[in-house]
Amino acid sequence: MAIRRGRGVAAINYPTGMNLGGDPTQALVHSTPTGNFMVTLSSVDLGQGMKQIMAQICAETIGVPTDRVVVDTADTDTGPHCMGTFASRGTHRAGNAVIQAAKEARQVMLEVAAEELEVNASDLETDGQGNILVKGAPQKSISIFDVALSAHFKRGRSISGRGMFLIPRSYPEKETGAMKPSTCYAHACTVAEVEVDDETGEVTVLTVKNVFEIGRALNPKMVEQQLVGGSWMGISHALYETTEPYYPNRDHGGTDFNQYLMPGPGDLAETEIIVLERPSADGPYGAKGPGEMCANPQIPAVANAVFDAVGVRIDTLPITPERILRALKAQAAN
Amino acid sequence: MAKVPVQFTLNGSEKAEFIDSGTTLLNALRDKVGDTSPKGGCHQGTCGACSVIIDGELRLSCLTLAETCNGTAITTTSGLAEGGVLQPLQRAFLDTFATQCGFCTPGMIMAAKVLLDHTPNPSRDEVVEALSGNICRCTGYEPIIQAVLTAARANSQNAA
Ligand code: FES
Ligand code: FES
Predict the structure, then answer these.
(1) Angle at alpha carbon of residue A299, lines to A294 and A302, rounded to 5°
(2) Tell me, what's the pLDDT at A246?
(3) Which of A122, A157, A160, B38 is the most buried (most CB within 10 A)?
(4) Does domain B3-79 have CATH number 2.60.40.10?
């Protein structure tokens, strides 16, 4: 009886969003009379940072500071349609819709500015600080504040735009069965090191080293935040979480946080996160969906590490001490 | 059901309410007093989201009857910022990105505040121990541990 060490590796290829039915999301953008911009969505920010990212995307597209953008989310009664915040699709789908809406709003904004400055709209550019300048003659400029006032009270224009992102549904080809389930994939690779006590079946994850390829990190700190949390969740899925250990008999199922286990602050593995940025072709400013993907590779990596440590393949999650001991017993019997 | 009077100070101001006997402090704070910073996660003492400080001690408000709090001084996360200025502990949660959905955050901050009040320079193990009654679904805990250690450093620099 001993503590045995093992190391496992796993790599994943993870689609952003889903294709069944086309996966649409819409967005609306409009300016207030003082030149702030409002993004209306029915996508949800549940802590992953949707509001911040959509504000950044809208600000970048229109050419204003991020704090000039307000994002309203999550009301499906009043907001433009969104399929939902799941499948790592929020940034990619809603972000693309916001870009399209913001471009349309920007065009109206430049047209109003052009009338005020008596130039051609195509000769104008934004400085990212809230001003519109004549290209090559920056002394000739107007603030977006004044443009919005003019649009609202003088020119009778609505500085607004509509955005829609829809990947048409892909059906399998009759002959080959080939189809295109997604247009954008994130990738990850994890190496996990574990210790397995072959007497108790207990697994301790010592280290998890993750590399994530997530397209452009639109907000690097928030991406890191997702990845750190996701890596922890992956270990939690691999070793702890289940409501129904004896499915379908729920008699011994977890009913509360005393029984539904997750690693606590004292159970953390040494975690390393490396981000590779390879901008995606169809993502907003090159983004992909890091959300769900980041909690996946740890699971097969831990399973492989357990195999490396004690020679048993556990193919049912979570990898509980009981499952390991049963497998060890079966192995010894053979 | 007969109402019972209860009086305590909440974040420095006097509160007096008539409540149903048996009301938890969590429900009294949220529904009667209107302080929604303590969160109801499990209502049975296992998640820590409802943590408040009563007379300097960390307590689970979901397991505390409001009527037992007569004459006490209660602190919640909503009482920490002074005049809109965040305390170093709150600032540290922002700076280390220790919040995602934020549901656990008020409880975490309460637990961390009691730790730092008693142990201004805690070790990592002491931080882990202090947070171990609080569940977070989002962050993986490491950013929260870093927030508390960062706040401890900020406090000791201010003191120096
Ligand atoms: S609500 Fe009090 S411990 Fe969960
Ligand atoms: S930030 Fe969501 S539970 Fe902790």
Answers:
(1) 125
(2) 60
(3) B38
(4) no
